[in-house]
């Protein structure tokens, strides 16, 4: 059967946008080289025209220069066409890459949406509220345990509040006196009324000068002489 009908040949895949762009750029580079070569010839003919006198020789040089100039214009037109094709291919490549990026973004969002839905199924508001209530109960229970462990042993609880207030007032009074350097604490003060005592003398009395006799010696008082 293969000998009669033959085998269907598989078509080769068409060039990609990148391959087409590279091929066109190579053609453009080749045309640029030709234009540069023609520019060199035009420069040489222009110098010859300047040095040649008007006449048949100068006209012949001008004719050759015109032919080179026409070729340059033709190549420049081809190069512009290739530039336009390259620009169009670059726009297509940009759009293609944008669509690929959008496709990848969409796939990533779908996967994230699926994961989010699966996670939300495992979370329930009722379960969260129940867990919060249990945590609050545990915290309260822990506070009660800490308060119980912090109790003091051997401290009586039946104190007289009026007696305690009196001691507190006395303590505050003592603290106020200690703030003054010359103040005397309450426990050193006498509760009795101060006694009226005479004032202390300001100084000692000066003795009177003794009388002198005829010899200048002090005389002895008569009251002090015994008979």
TrEMBL record:
One cellular component term from this protein's GO annotations in UniProt: multivesicular body
Residue span of region Disordered: 1-22, 179-227
Any single Pfam family the record assigns to this protein: Snf7
Protein's GO biological process: late endosome to vacuole transport via multivesicular body sorting pathway; vesicle budding from membrane
Superkingdom: Eukaryota
InterPro entries for this protein: Snf7_fam
Keyword Coiled coil: yes
Record's keyword terms, sorted: Coiled coil
Similarity section: Belongs to the SNF7 family.
Protein known as: Charged multivesicular body protein 5
Taxonomic source organism: Physcomitrium patens (Spreading-leaved earth moss)
Gene for this chain: LOC112278433
